[in-house]
Design goal:
With about 110 residues, the protein is an alpha+beta fold. It is built from two helices and five strands; from the N terminus they run ββαβαββ.
Length: about 110
Amino acid sequence: MPQVIFLPHEEICPEGASIEAEPGISICDLALKNGIEIEHACEKSCACTTCHVYVREGLESLAEATEDEEDMLDKAWGLEPDSRLSCQALVADTDLVVELPKYTINQVSENH
């Protein structure tokens, strides 16, 4: 099974994590199931950008972003070529390295 490596994030995942993933699970669901509290204000329906991540390695193994995802990503803070919405990016059969952005554009966070 592929490994998803979450790079350290000062608040959400200070130590980073390496997690074995079942192919087909979203990066968001994998993180949440393993105690990495990625924000997901729209309940993973591709209607916001709070679950935005950077896929630093393995991006080419993911299915291409849909037009809806691309439209939402255009609104994300710190958009980069390897940006994805973690609720829409499904793990395939390749290891991934994921970085959580320093900020989101979420005006209200339930965890703060």
